[in-house]
Input
Amino acid sequence: MSLVDVLKEGATGSISSILNMAKIIIPLMVVIQVLKDLNVLGKLSNNMKPLAKFLGISEDSTFPLIIGLTLGLAYGAGVIINSAKEGNLSKKDLYLVVIFLVACHSVFEDTLLFVAIGANGWLLLGIRVIVALVLTTLAAKHIDKMLSNNKIKL
Amino acid sequence: MDENYLKNNSLEPEKHNGNKKNSWDYKQTLVNGLKNGLETTWTLSKIIVPVYFAVTVLKHTLLLEAISNVFKPFMNIVGLPGEAAIVLVLGNMVNLYATLGAIATLALTSKEITIIAVMLSFSHSLFMETAVAKKTGINVAIILIIRISLAIVSGLILNLFL
Output
């Protein structure tokens, strides 16, 4: 195979991948902008008391949780840093929210981009959400002990 | 894909100006959304194009085969061919966008792509995201252990059941 063929394959292949992803990314960003500007996520986080109870986190931590889950870890961390400054988040909440978010964040973008290249999106999303829920509830049960024993330097 | 949020936006969430529904400037929302979409697509392109070219060139040399043979024993445990090691390395060292270019170049089955996607979704952009997590004041060693273990365990389990 000549170099020209290789370059041709690279050019056509990468352009078609990008067009595929643009079809997903651009509408997604418009939807996310609507959610942000209408403060849908803020309102949604006020209705998540049952989830907070289930996960063992305080109600104040649902906002960073929902932001990180939908918009991404960087946004979620931004909200966490803010809430921490205002003193709304305990050390326990901080750990539980971050543990949830590292297992599962920016679910729309990540899932759709992998679907664009051929992954099973429902399986991907399902596994992430379930693992995040299980991991966080498990951590919630044991974190008090760990924090008080100072077994690990948190 | 948090790089864009760091680059294009401040870390703090935007002030929500849509509390009064009747004053919602939907045109501005649409413009901002399209702008973010195009900017993200541009960021994506800058990463995917070079990675796609690099992996295409590798594919037509013996190098990809050599890399593949080295990693085969490890990758087979999680049901992936040896060359998929490139995808996992790119995802963890760079970001998910880079993996999209690499996955598109390699001929992988849908089972393999799903396994890679799940593994990478737990563990990716480790340098960047660990730096972000550190800013919240958390012990990042714990976070790294959780992420990498989740990736490996999920790969093992998916390989058995898919």
Notes: Chain A has one domain: 39-149.
